[in-house]
Amino acid sequence: xxxxxxAFMKGMRNTLIPVGTFIVGFIIGLVIFGWWLTPVEYTGxxxxxxxxxxxxxxxxxxxxxxxxxxxxxxxxxxIQAGFANWPEALDAICARATEVEASGQQGANVVAQQxxxxxxxxxxxxCAAVVAPEPSSGSLWQICLYGLGLLLALGxxxxxxxxxxxxxxxxxxxxxxxxxxxxxxxPAMEANESGEMSGVTPIASYxxxxxxxxxxxxxxxxxxxxxxxxxxxxxxxxSESIGSGASKAATAMEVWLFxxxxxxxxxxxxxxxxxxxxxxxxxKLSPKGEPVLARPDxxxxxxxxxxxxxxxxxxxxxxxxxxxPDKGYFDNFAVEISVWAKxxxxxxxxPAMNFDDF
Length: 358
Description:
Blueprint: H1 2-11, H2 13-37, H3 52-68, H4 72-82, H5 89-103, H6 108-122, H7 139-172, E1 177-180, E2 190-191, E3 197-198, E4 204-211, E5 218-224, E6 230-242, E7 249-259, E8 265-271, H8 273-276, H9 279-285, E9 290-293, E10 299-303, E11 307-318, E12 330-342, E13 352-353
Parallel strand pairs: 8-9
Antiparallel strand pairs: 1-12, 1-13, 2-3, 4-12, 5-6, 6-7, 7-8, 10-11, 11-12
Helix pairs in contact: 3-6, 5-6
């Protein structure tokens, strides 16, 4: 059970980190800054900022207060001062009067008249000063603008769709590795049938060997340019074991690549013959990475945003424990890792060679 949890955590390490960072940042931004240090405060609001329903109720109450106030002149001065920052007050009062009158409720005519009296406080001409909007004015322009916007949106969709189709072939082309110029090791610009760059000097090469009896095998390497710039990491470790105690042995090895310019860690699982054809083991290891049947000279290719790794199985032999399945575990497993940087990779090192230049 513990192994399953560890395997799940390793497979989710590139998802948990950004998700955890987002949650922590969200809590800091919302709770600490939003609610505690810099909370939003609203000041200086007027009747024009009320919800339309509350605004209508406010205007009706103000009109009734003005209608029954003993000193209407004094009250008028207060109303004018209150509406000083609301240029649309007259329109809102008259619109409310029309709505109330059209409702047909009991006493609606009285309330509507009170609102019209209130309108005379804002403007001496009252609601007569309100110019009824022309519904047709500007409608043709609006229709034209909406039509142009729709045509523009459809044109953009069609353009990007066509670009998507034409760019798919380019996207499927394998990226051309870029090789750093290494002193005393001029690269030969030839590629073999499998796509490997024969004779090309990679920016980094590593070798590692697993031998049966090392249940904690986990070898990793830092990828750097000749100038010492860090590009990422790669490595080989045990992905799954069978047996227990002294007979516990590796039945699958995972080869992984981390690129500092990519948020993902790419992993592929090299499986023994027994693990590869066992549905239960394949289902268990599928979240870790693409399964590969381990064979001598098999090349496991890993590619990220800026790096390409070829991990070649240089040596492999199965153990012969009678208590374990046939071809079920590795007695030894040696891998040679070669790393190249892509054409547009920001390696930060010296000058680079591009295969297209030759």
